[in-house]
Amino acid sequence: MPTMSPTTHSEVFDAAEHMPLGSTLVVNDFSWDEYELLLQDLEGRRNPRLSYDSGRLEVVMISPRHDAYDRLIDYFVQEFIEARGLIAQAYGQATWKHKGLSKGAEGDCCYYIQNARKVIGKDEIPLESNPPPDIVVEIGISSNSVKKLRIWAGLGVPEVWRFDGMAFHFYVLAEGKYAEVAASKCIPGLTGAPMLEALAVAEANGHTAARKAFRHLIRKAKK
Fold first, then answer.
1. pLDDT tens, 77-97?
2. What share of the chain is helix, strand, coil (3-state, %, to 5)?
3. Which of 33, 47, 136, 219 has the most crowded CB, counting CB atoms within 10 A?
């Protein structure tokens, strides 16, 4: 994992332009102002993904495989939410940051469930005056997403899911730290099993077959 000395947002932007997919770059002692300028430079891009924790900037270039998992898992979650009649707001790979906490990060998917009505209709959701997403999903096949739990805990995200390429891990925030649990608390009834089964279908038969398989699995479970 390459590391850069303190530098400017433009230098990190230039370095990111030459990073291979699936790689990670760490910059230490990076200022908050430079972090915000870098976010502006990268606005609208899916690559790279940034995380910031008290001066430590991590830049990750997601791979096509990572991106495919991202899109499928988001589909599964939204299909399950709709099937269960829940109200939710999804914000994809939005950046969540809080200057006072000196923390910021971008998940692979994120959702407001319990707090959905508090953010509906808002174009911007600064965490200084709004609750964080109820759920953030991290896909950790090319980088160590466990490290980002510290950031999400600091931002007060109630629930984080981590998919490591083989299994789903669900974490619930309690007294400032995450404890692993068997299934989602924010979306009752959703476990990793149907998503894993549908992802296996995707590997063998493609995304359309995986979406169909997931719909069948959740209808079957509801009976």
1. 999 999 999 999 999 999 999
2. 40, 25, 40
3. 136
